[in-house]
Amino acid sequence: MNDPLNLLKSLTRPTLLVTAARHAAQGYQRDRVLRRLLKANTPTGHGEAVIKLLILERELDEARRTRIAGYSVARHITVLAALIAEGGYLGSRARPAQANASATSALRLVM
User: Fold this and answer.
1) How do residues 59-88 score in pLDDT, each as one tens digit?
2) Which of 102, 107, 3, 4 is nearest to 53 (CA)?
3) Do residues 89 and 70 make contact, with C-beta atoms less than 8 angstroms apart?
């Protein structure tokens, strides 16, 4: 289960967050977004980026669930959008025949 794509596929988040992230993922600019989110150099591989983003997203989701005052829904959406985009890159490499498949299939919706 340490495969970044499998970790991403097992992620479930509220419908509103995922819908907003899908829209935000359409304008994803990898270098700019990852540099801002990770506060470091842009990871070279998509798998590495997914792992780092999953760690960040888990922290944000915990803050959301526990209603911590410093929680930023905008940051959470940006992280989810980056995960959708990076997962799409991973998915297209794993299944070349489906290169045009939806990048959002990696995130499942929960009500």
Assistant:
1) 999 999 999 999 999 999 999 999 999 988
2) 4
3) no
CA distance 64 to 45: 28
Tokens of 103: 């990048």
If you write DSSP's letter for every residue of 6-61 in order, what string do you get? HHHHT-EEEHHHHHHHHHHHTT--HHHHHHHHHSSSPPSSHHHHHHHHHHHHHHHH
* CA–CA distance, 28 with 10 (Å, rounded to integer): 22
- Could you tell me the two tokens for 75? 């940051």
Residue in 79, 82, 61, 51 with CA at minimum distance from that of residue 13: 61
State the pTM of this model: 0.78
